[in-house]
Amino acid sequence: MSIKFLIKIRYLMQIIHISDLKNYIGQEVTLRGWLFNKRSGGKVRFVILRDGTGYLQCVYFKGNVTEDTFDAADRTGQESSIEVTGKVKEEPRAAGGYELDAKGLTIIQNANNYPITPKDHGIEFLLDNRHLWLRSKKQVAILKIRHRIVKAIRDFFDDRGFTLMDTPILTPNAVEGTSTLFETKYFDLGSAYLTQSGQLYAEAGAMALGKVYTFGPTFRAEKSKTRRHLTEFWMVEPEAAFFDLNDNMDLAESFLEYIVQTVLKEMKNELGILERDTSKLENVKKPLPRISYDEAIEILKKNNVKLEWGKDISGADETIISNQFDRPVIVHRYPAEIKAFYMKRDPENPKIALAMDVLAPEGYGEIIGGSQREDDLDQLLERIKEHNLPQEAFEWYLDLRRYGTVPHAGFGLGLERTVSWICGLDHLREAIPFPRMIYRNTP
RNA sequence: UCCGCGUUAGCUCAAUGGUAGAGCAUUCGGCUGUUAACCGAAGGGUUGUAAGUUCGAGUCUUACACGCGGAGCCA
């Protein structure tokens, strides 16, 4: 065969992805990707190809292929980049149902000694190799579900008249004045802090656009060392004018239902790879149970846990409460003292803030926190004093109450906690591609 | 910051105070349907660091370093 002829064949060959195999049964195709794993018989070689869209077993029989090709199948290492050609066929013995009756194997780059072998590894090693760990089956499934959740979040708000509004990451002050923030030098203006929430800015947006949401990274410099904390995480925060606490809870409820039901419907394969028991996710439908903080204390009392009125609900207590229900539970009307300065007081009881948290089932804890905001100028001024916050830093925020203030509300949903819950992960660090934790900022 | 646990081959882990071991990975050989394939062989070690107890320390003691889990804080 002349070189010209080979080039012609090369151009005629259809280059496809594994996810499209079903449309090419019986046809000769080319696929490109990485060698996921391989096995061998005496005169047969099984090469598992992955290309980001799926996995495909390519079968090389000695005699059916050239010596060179058969040797190539032998000497190609795990995660080598390769190009394969062959005929697509249905094959119940192969995982995925399709197989490639392979003819050609081109090694783009032969990888030697890939660190993540097909056996167990410790978490430290895997995190050190996070850039490679992302290639493994479960991590690919998690990344895809995370992407689908992000898309569901955006679709949900976009379809309901919310406008995406990005808020600054570098901010001049602490939003709630409590959390420890990452500090950085900012030219001649002194210090700037990495944002811990876009909410105050989103409130300005809600007064401009009616309904907005902000979706971006947030940062907490707390020295938290648990499976529920990262120092850098993503949060989506809707904020709507003329919303009260009930509207806010209605929105959160529809929102969670939409996200979970969308993932259940469209990500069956990935949930299967993660071996997620989806029966508990099926229940995530309106209406979600709503209980007050006072009722939460009663539930704890029945379970022999004493919680003094005015104290915050701990992680363990959250689990006890959420175990009483078969779906996420909304807890509302917390003691004002343990909540942020901008939350509106209950007109019926000034000791209570019109706050709401949503606790995920199965011990995943708080995934949503929100409130109706204080819209009265004098009340807000008083709160700022009580919390010892510098009023001048909040003048712009107070302007929102001076010029056409209206009742409004919003909440924040932690993306990684949501991904972790829906995927059934045991640690937040697998819910984000490159986790940032107190003792790790690499790779 | 506090409490608990851990650190042995590239990776995951064994080893009663008495010669440092296995599986995976790597290299070589075998097998025509493998599914974390399997079978045979080989190479691979300053047992986290420093000191101490002991005839003898991977093992016991102390300090330090690093990591993991939990508490607090929060999404």
Q: Which characteristics define this entry?
A:
443 residues; single chain; OB fold (Dihydrolipoamide Acetyltransferase, E2P); five-stranded mixed barrel; 2 domains; alpha+beta; nine-stranded mixed beta sheet; BirA Bifunctional Protein, domain 2; RNA-binding; 27% strand
Assembly state: single chain
User: How far is it from the N-terminal to the C-terminal residue, by CA?
Assistant: 48 Å
**CATH architecture tag of the largest domain:** 2-Layer Sandwich
The overall average pLDDT, rounded, is 90
- Tell me about the largest β-sheet: 9 strands, mixed
Taking pLDDT < 50 over at least 5 consecutive residues as the criterion, the unreliable ranges are: none
The fraction of residues assigned to DSSP E strands is: 25-35%
Query: Outline, from the CA principal axes?
Result: elongated
Number of helices: 14
Provide structural commentary.
- With 443 residues, this protein is an alpha+beta fold.
- The chain folds into two domains: 3-109, OB fold (Dihydrolipoamide Acetyltransferase, E2P) (Beta Barrel); 130-431, Bira Bifunctional Protein, Domain 2 (BirA Bifunctional Protein, domain 2).
- Helices cover 32% and strands 27% of the residues.
- The chain has helices at 3-12, 67-75, 123-128, 130-133, 137-159, 199-209, 245-266, 268-273, 279-282, 293-302, 315-322, 377-386, 395-402, 415-423; strands at residues 14-15, 28-40, 44-50, 55-61, 81-90, 98-109, 163-164, 170-171, 183-185, 191-194, 211-219, 232-241, 290-292, 329-335, 345-346, 349-360, 365-372, 408-414.
- The strands form three sheets. Strands 7, 11, 12, 13, 14, 15, 16, 17 and 18 form a nine-stranded mixed beta sheet that branches. A five-stranded mixed barrel has the order 2-3-4-6-5.
- A hairpin with a 2-residue loop joins strand 15 and strand 16 (349-360).
- The chain is elongated, with a radius of gyration of 27 Å.
- The structure holds one RNA strand of 75 nucleotides.
